[in-house]
Amino acid sequence: MHNKSIEGVLKELDTSLSGLTESQAKDRLRLYGFNELEEEEESKLRVFLRQFASPLVVILLVAGFLSLLLGELKDATVIYGLVLVNGLLGFYQEIRALTSIRALKSITALKTRVLRDKDEKEIDVRFLVPGDIILLSEGDVVPADIRLVESVALQVDEAILTGESFPVGKMASVVLQEDAPIFERINCLYKGTTVVKGRAVGVVFATGRSTEIGRIARRMVERSPESPLTRALGILAKRLVFILFFSLFLLFLVGIYQGRDIKTLFFFIVAELVSAVPEGLPIVITLSLVVGVLRLSRQKTLVKYLPSAETLGSATYICTDKTGTITEGKPRVERYYPIDKFHLFMCAALCNDSNGIKGDPIELALLEWLEGERFGWPRVREAFERVWEHPFDAKRRFMAVVVKNGDSYDLYVKGAFESLLEMCKECPVEIAKMHESYAKSGLRVLAFGHSKIKRIPHDVHRVKISLVGVIGFLDPPKSGVDEAVKTAREAGIRVVMITGDNLLTAKSVASMVNIYKDQDIAIEGKDLEKFSDDELYNLLKRLTVVARASPDDKYRIVKVLQQKGEIVAVTGDGVNDVPALKAADLGVAMGSGSSAAKDAAKMIITDNNLSVIVEAVKTGRHIAKNIGTAIRYLISTNAFEVMYVSFAILFGLPLPFYATQVLWINLITDGVQDKTFPFTKYEGNPMKEKPKKPQDVLVGKQQLLKILYNSVFITVCHVLLFSYLLRTFSYEQALTISFTSSALSQFPVGIQEISDRPFFRDPLRFMLINPYIFLSVILGVSLQMVAIFFLSEYFHAVTLEWEHIKYALLIPVLTFLAIELRKCLFYLTTSHSVIR
To answer: pTM above the 0.85 mark?
Structure first.
């Protein structure tokens, strides 16, 4: 389409500048399909088969096959049956998680403005079709391949497509040669690129897989980034498997040396290996994340990438914008000081892209103010045609326009006082005083300038202007922000406000919401260059305000903090925020922000308020705690099984389980109880605690001590009990009691670990923390009863009488009381207990 005129393109696509009708759009949607790069959806069969792809499951399948060869039909039946049930459980949980993830992704679908039935509408980009007329402005992500119809000072970032690191100027009126390469097609925009400056109107000529980026990405599948906790879990799993392989191999050699049956020993070691690895943990983590993300969605927070929810509770810094996040984002003109009132009004009306209904909040406020001053800005715009413009420059912080005025031209400029001062012939002393006075009182101040010129300038920076006045805007803080900042401080999170406003205004607003205090440091972005990365990090420990900040300043702050191990959340709403949003551990885009910001962020908040982000951190900590509980339970119980067998072999006792019994215990405990942990309620206030790094949640000192305490206690008790049972009962009876006791002893661990609060302090309140876990205990106990009373032949068990059952119940009760004692001691000795 780059080689055709605008009229030719419209004719070929059978459309007009008024856009398509809804009827035409529906017909074309059926013909061309949705405007999306379809991901290759994994079939349910592949998801099911993947449940058996684990090396440990493969080992188990081989063990079952060997059982068949050796004539052990019952063992093979149980092994394959348990593998199948575990596979079905994993399949069910993963399908549910994938469904939830897809639903969450659909919530964050991008929107675009189109002309349909001659009216401007906002639609989901997936419903775009060839022939649609769309409207784009600064910060928008181009939703399809487009031939430009109109363009004003348009610059586009095409790095995603061409690799070009600098924005490319675009122009609608140009017609190019047919063989022009893509990087020279300045009259076209391509899907996935970003509008950096200016605005445009264009006609869609390709959608979905037919776009340029669609051709490149046909074989690509989107993948969520791996989070710190997921990486830590992977490292733990590798180490755990290595330790288990090594220790169980030694046990196998010891067993052979002791003259034990090799076949029985082999099956037992394989079963121990499989049961000792918490292969269900990834499912529990995914379920915890899904539950947490659904909670966040009810709190006006949309998580785009599921793994990013893991790090919410670990954030140590929040780098936030001011306007729209801390303040209302609905400024109004509070005070103004004119030097030339006529040209001040003219500049406010003409150097302004708002139409009075939509646009930048500051520009809307200017038009509202002009109406209050009875200045007819619509008539002025009709009389003075805009012939050139310099869109707002984030680095220079000003906007300029040129309008036709008879045989000459008028240049109007509005922007930061410091920026206009550089272009000014001379600055009236009273203007400087008023600027400082307004800024100290917390007003956002803009300066306005004018110059009479003979021709359109090639370089606006060289034009000398006269200041015609300053205007102070009041943008009051949002309700709840000061409380949110206080909560963040108590939770060990530093809040840094990074804004484009001048230093005086920024400090004043930050003081209103308790971000800036007398002992804190406030600095301008340009001064950050004076500090090395190490010096800047030390400064950031006391720094709470960065004024006149550029996108590069924001990006550098994020990178410096991350290099020192901090976990950083960053808010942003404009295209200039994209680098920092992408670099941050948690990029948080405003719901009212640009498409580019929302596309780069991992999280979107629909209510642009800092308090929502703090609430999201609270939920993130809840997610992290539930994952930590699941890890503690799984490793405690699995470690017990390995230690029990190890002691039995080392002390020369008979094996306390059969291989099939170990697998059964794994199914009715790890396969049932751990799935309830994501639904545990949070006790106390998570925001009274300090941030914890993901590795501390997984294998922190306290975590390891609790795991060791649990597993060693149950192991020692079972070794002593089993020794006694062998002297009192037959081996078959002792084995069945040991089998039942080992299964039942794992349930009190799960019950106790859902809370740090002692159970007997308030039993009813304790049970309400997670009622589901008690249902899982009922299910698990019922299944164990089925195994010993109805399927005893398959599990090498015998039917137990009451005199046997009381021994099977002894250690579960002792385990419950032992963990209760541990929690009571912790509760009494911890003066700053988080339990309240």
So the answer is: no
Q: What angle do CA 461, 467, 468 make, to 5 degrees?
A: 135
The predicted-structure confidence for 402-426, as pLDDT tens digits, reads as follows: 999 988 999 999 999 989 998 988 8
For residue 67, what are its two tokens? 């059982």
Pairing of strands 168-170, 145-157: antiparallel
Q: Which residues contact 35 (CB under 8 A, 6 or more apart)?
A: 125, 126, 127, 128, 129, 143, 144, 207, 208
Q: How far is CA 234 from CA 225, 230, 278, 621, in A?
A: 14, 6, 12, 21
Q: Binning pLDDT at 50, 70 and 90, where does residue 259 land?
A: confident
pLDDT tens digits for 24-45?
A: 999 999 999 988 866 556 677 8
Rounded to whole angstroms, the Cα distance separating 440 from 429 reads 17
Model confidence at 305, pLDDT cuts 50, 70, 90, reads: low
The yes-or-no verdict on residue 224 having pLDDT over 50 is no
DSSP state of 226: P
The DSSP symbol for 447 reads E
Cα(260)–Cα(35) distance, integer angstroms: 66
d(CA 607, CA 297): 11
- Picking from 270, 320, 286, the residue whose alpha carbon sits closest to that of residue 104 is 286
Contact by Cβ (8 Å): 794, 82: no
Q: Which two tokens stand for residue 602?
A: 């991992």
Please return the burial class of 289, using the count of CB atoms within 10 Å of its CB with bins 0-12, 13-18 and 19+.
buried
Mean pLDDT for the chain overall: 83
Concerning whether 321 is annotated as a catalytic residue, the answer is yes
**Tokens 């996040």 map to which residue?**
325
First to last CA, the chain: 67
pLDDT band at 473 (very low <50, low <70, confident <90, very high): very high
> Of 668, 797, 673, 652, which Cα lies nearest the Cα of 732?
797
- Choose the catalytic residue: 75, 132, 157, 321: 321
pLDDT digits over 591-616, tens only?
Answer: 766 666 777 778 888 777 778 888 78
Q: Which residue has the higher pLDDT, 632 or 459?
A: 632
Give the closest residue to 757 by CA, choosing from 683, 817, 703, 706: 683
CA-CA distance, 442 to 505, in Å (whole number)?
Answer: 5
Rounded to whole angstroms, what are the CA distances from 761 to 130, 506, 769, 775, 829? Answer: 67, 49, 14, 22, 16
Residue 456 φ then ψ, to 5°: -65, 130
d(CA 289, CA 305): 10
CA distance 283 to 614: 27
- 355, 364, 294: which is closest to 328 by C-alpha? 364
